[in-house]
Specification:
The complex is a heterodimer of chains A (112) and B (109). With 112 residues, chain A is mainly β. Chain A contains no helices and eleven strands. In chain B, a hairpin with a 1-residue loop joins strand 9 and strand 10. The chains are: A mainly beta (112), B mainly beta (109).
Chain lengths: 112, 109
């Protein structure tokens, strides 16, 4: 099993550009999550999904959108990128709520 | 709103020492608590998951405890090694997850 995969690993965006961060898992997990981690800080939840077609906001959803059309994939869309969105983005999955979470390797995003 | 605090933010110990990392949370209505390790520039690796009905979980030299009533969890590392140097994060799992900011551990040879 590949576990949780994320692409790209690194990306530089100009202010106002848009992009989609890809996340996929092959563990047939119901729950998927997007977090951001700023330097020296813990992780903050952006969005999460409890299954295909169902998503909900986390702590810091502004400036982001998600969709989940399949169990495996959970892309994160950034519209009109801002410098405040410079961060490392992690995708994670778990079988059920509050079960053990498995993380992808992260995407390091810089907005200049 | 759940808040998770990890103290100290950084810890430096000589090799071979036993040590304890602390994690406190404000809302005791959690389902589980998970400890992670993060190496610089890398993702998170799960170390231990303690279910709310458990008080302890062990894996090798690691032992994690959970006391929901006091809002505390500890991660005990026995006989520390330089390879244990990393940032350790805890997460309170209650539907939505809340992470602490981590403790950065340095084990000196």
């Amino acid at each position: 099993n590949a576990g949780v995969t994320q692409t790209p690993k690194f990306r530089i965006l100009k202010i106002g550009q848009s992009m989609t961060l890809q996340c996929a898992q092959d563990m047939n997990h119901n729950y998927m999550y997007w977090y951001r981690q700023d330097p020296g800080m813990g992780l903050k939840l952006i969005y999460y999904s409890v299954g295909a077609g169902i998503t909900d906001k986390g702590e810091v959803p502004n400036g982001y959108n998600v969709s989940r059309s399949t169990t495996e994939d959970f892309p994160l869309r950034l519209e009109l990128a801002a410098p405040s969105q410079t961060s490392v983005y992690f995708c994670a999955s778990s079988l059920q709520t509050s079960y053990e979470q498995y993380f992808g390797p992260g995407t390091r995003l810089t907005v200049t | 709103k759940q808040e998770v605090t990890q103290i100290p933010a950084a810890l430096s110990v000589p090799e071979g020492e036993n040590l304890v990392l602390n994690c406190s949370f404000t809302d005791s209505a959690i389902y589980n608590l998970q400890w992670f390790r993060q190496d610089p520039g890398k993702g998170l690796t799960s170390l231990l998951l303690i279910q709310s009905s458990q008080r302890e979980q062990t894996s090798g030299r690691l032992n994690a405890s959970l006391d929901k009533s006091s809002g505390r969890s500890t991660l005990y590392i026995a006989a520390s090694q330089p390879g244990d140097s990393a940032t350790y994060l805890c997460a309170a799992l209650a539907g939505k997850s809340t992470f602490g900011d981590g403790t950065t551990l340095t084990v000196k040879p």
